[in-house]
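Action item from last week, closing it out:
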Amino acid sequence: MKKVFEANYEGHIIQVENRWFTGEKLYVDGKLQDENMGLALRGTLNGNLTTNQNESKDIKVSIGGFFSIHCKIFIGHAVVPSYQIK
């Protein structure tokens, strides 16, 4: 089973893909930035993006759950609204 979560931050598309047995992946503007392999109840992914003002921002993703998968995307220390697309 595959779930994909997406967020938009200043025109940058952040996608988090979760597959039941193969793990999680973090994409920023279509480029893979981090990956966890295998089965886990909880995972963390890290990446970064460059804003339109040429600032580097850290991305942290917390993903997990037992009966359903939840995903939180942080830029700096603030949660970015995200939604499940698949």
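Closing note: The two ends are 10 Å apart (CA to CA).
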